[in-house]
Design brief:
The complex is a heterodimer. By secondary structure, chain A is α+β, with helices and mostly antiparallel strands. Helix content of chain A is about 25%, strand content about 25%. The longest helix of chain A is centred in the first third of the chain and has 20 residues. Chain A is elongated, with a radius of gyration of 18 Å. Chain B is built from no helices and five strands. In chain B, strand 3 and strand 4 form a beta hairpin. Chain B has a three-stranded antiparallel beta sheet with strand order 4-3-5, with no helix packed on it. A two-stranded antiparallel sheet of chain B has the order 1-2. Chain B is about 0% helix and about 25% strand. Classes of the chains: A alpha+beta, B mainly beta. Strand 5 of chain A pairs parallel with strand 3 of chain B, so a sheet runs across the interface.
């Protein structure tokens, strides 16, 4: 499921990373939402701990064309606060607006029989258009 | 009183005293008993943007920020790990 996302350049730019993440989640999103389409232009790539926008709609400045997330892996070390690269894992989120979220929930309710917790049991009608 | 060849009158047998002309010469090994300089373990190379050669990983999920909320609310899409290999050259 995650094929094609390894061997990325660490210096990947924000736009490229945004597109990768969008494509990665797009099909799952359509399945979950019952086919509610959200354009990439309506999403913002953010860190989940540091919410500053990395790319997308809410980014107020031009996106970094390289080293978009490298700073998450740079840590000060020692008395001189020497910056070193520290491998690890970060969490990102493809954030949509509140309105899109509400519309997606409505679409999901139309598409799926759900439990009270919102867990989809089965689709009511197959309306999904997952595209090519 | 004498002990180990030293006397109170001559605490430095052989005549070596701080007043000796050779005192203070490094070649004379008077510094031999000084504490050796501390050796620190080698530090990691400072990041210069191109000397990174390792792996990082990200997790990405759908989310939204509700009005008044500070955190990102994860939306029901399962998040999953993505390994990203960092490729670059040594400096």
């Amino acid at each position: 499921m995650v094929d094609g996302l390894d061997k990325l350049d660490a210096h990947i730019g924000a736009t490229a990373l945004h597109l990768r993440c969008y494509n990665l989640l797009h099909r799952r999103w359509l399945e979950w939402s019952g086919g509610y389409q959200v354009a990439i232009e309506d999403t913002t790539l953010r860190g989940t701990k540091i919410h500053a926008a990395i790319a997308g709609k809410d980014l107020s400045e031009p996106p970094k064309e390289q080293d978009a997330i490298l700073h998450f892996f740079l840590k000060p070390r020692g008395k001189a606060n020497e910056v070193v690269f520290k491998p690890g894992q970060i969490e990102l989120a493809l954030v949509i607006g509140e309105m899109d979220y509400k519309l997606a929930l409505e679409k999901r309710e139309e598409a799926y029989e759900q439990t009270e917790d919102g867990v989809a049991l089965h689709s009511k009608v197959c309306k999904l258009n997952l595209g090519p | 009183m004498q002990a180990g060849g030293r006397t109170y009158d001559n605490p430095f047998p052989g005549g070596y005293t701080p007043e000796h002309q050779a005192f203070g010469l490094e070649s004379n090994k008077w510094y031999g008993k000084t504490v050796p300089p501390r050796r620190f373990p080698p530090r990691n190379l400072p990041v210069k943007g191109t000397n990174i050669l390792s792996e990082i990983a990200i997790r990405v999920s759908m989310g939204t920020i509700l009005p008044g909320g500070r955190n990102i609310k994860t939306i029901g899409v399962s998040s999953f790990a993505v390994n990203i290999e960092v490729l670059c050259a040594d400096t």
